[in-house]
Amino acid sequence: MSLDVPTALLERAERGEATDAEFVDCIRTSLPYAWSVVTGVIADLESGTAPFADDSTPPPTEAERGQLLRALASDAIRGGLERHFGVTLAFQNCHRVGAFRPEAVGGAEYQEFVSVRGQLLNQSPELRDC
């Protein structure tokens, strides 16, 4: 699933006038499953004091998995979400989303989450084709 960009926003983008707020709203409406996962992880992060929060619930359908991949594999989309929420997002496999407080980036938990070791330990046969 790609972004569903309204004509007016596309026209503003062509003129170089699109804002981050408009872009984030386009993400919210185009990728509702990804939005719900990201905002859920951020809500968990904000409700506690831990340096990060994560969600590793597999998406219920391939379409929803595609939304997560689109949102978190795109530098522009992920960056827009990070700027909007003031966090750093990280992604493992095809569904594990982490949200890190800015001061936690570079710390032990972040380094473990984004490490080769962390990725390898998060593998399983049922996730191989996800």
How are the SSEs ordered, and which strands pair?
Layout: H1 7-14, H2 20-30, H3 32-46, E1 52-55, H4 62-73, H5 75-85, E2 88-92, E3 96-100, H6 108-113, H7 116-121
Antiparallel strand pairs: 1-3, 2-3
Helix pairs in contact: 2-5, 3-4
Describe it for me?
Helices cover 53% and strands 11% of the residues. It is mainly alpha-helical and 130 residues long. It has one domain. Strands 1-3-2 form a three-stranded antiparallel sheet. Helix 2 crosses helix 5 and helix 3 packs across helix 4. The longest helix has 15 residues, at 32-46. The model has no long low-confidence stretch (mean pLDDT 90).
| Computed CA radius of gyration, to the nearest angstrom | 15 Å
Mean of pLDDT: 90
Question: How much strand?
Answer: 5-15%
The residue ranges in which pLDDT falls below 50 over 5 or more consecutive positions are: none
Structural class based on helices, strands and sheet pairing: mainly alpha
Pfam families: KH_NucS_shadow
